[in-house]
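Running co-folding for fe (ii) ion.
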Amino acid sequence: MREQKIINMLEKWEKDLPAVPQTVSRVLAAVANDFSDVQQLEEIIKSDQSLSSKILRLANSAFYGLTHTVSTVREAIMMLGYGEVKHLALDVSLIGFFGHPKELKGFDINGLWLHSFAVGSAARIISDFIKGLNPEEAFTAGILHDVGKMIFLLAEKDDFLSVIEYAKTHRVSFSVAEQEVCGLGHSFIGGILARRWYFPEYLVSCIEYHHRPDLAGSHTPMAATVALADAVAYKLSIGAAGAPVTDIPDAVLLNQVGLKKTAMKEIMHQMEKQKARVEESLAGVCLHAA
Ligand SMILES: [Fe+2]
Ligand SMILES: [Fe+2]
């Protein structure tokens, strides 16, 4: 894979799909901002017609089991809750942007989405154990940490599949395999994308350094939280991120976030309880985001 090819791909996307990253960015800002209000969220969702109709379909889906039909975005927020709709808007706008291309034979893209959702949920759980981390930022960083894999997959599918094959055969992490096969990593690609989309600095760092939290400077605790959440998703086999193992020992990550080994047991326990919900919510979002 050549770096220039990826950059060309990003440029083409920016030209062809200018509105979608804008929606993603606005939803991201609302998710990260504890002070954003119902009206602001409603306005963001309503400004994107496709996003509003998907949110309404989702709100009315069997998953939420509402007893009466929801017909406006405001009602959806009232019935499902501000936090839930905020997260749905992020999930739907991301999946709507990247899509689930049907020609991607040989790789289950929904498995990667499920992995991303799981890492978002696990990062939020972990952030509750750590002083000074914003749970909403942890959630967002978790959902987006592997965004570079999406670009890699869509830009260079054959190389992507070779990386998966290499990781499987040699039982190494995705990062090790991609360096061996292509000499370029999804975290690097994700970092380029995150900067081009003017993501906040903490998010750029987590995307770029979730496999090397030690290099994330002041964002090391957040990047290590995401890496630990990544490990939790692997251990509980939620989704598929393209490799059989992760690359950083739990003890190193726990140390970077300042937690004792015993915390891992509680984190795993809490995430286990959320596993079914994460799986069900992805199924709903995929069905209605298509
Ligand atoms: Fe990753
Ligand atoms: Fe991951």
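Result summary
The pocket of fe (ii) ion (ligand 2) is lined by residues 115, 119, 145-146, 230, 241 (CB under 6 Å).
The radius of gyration is 18 Å.
Job closed.
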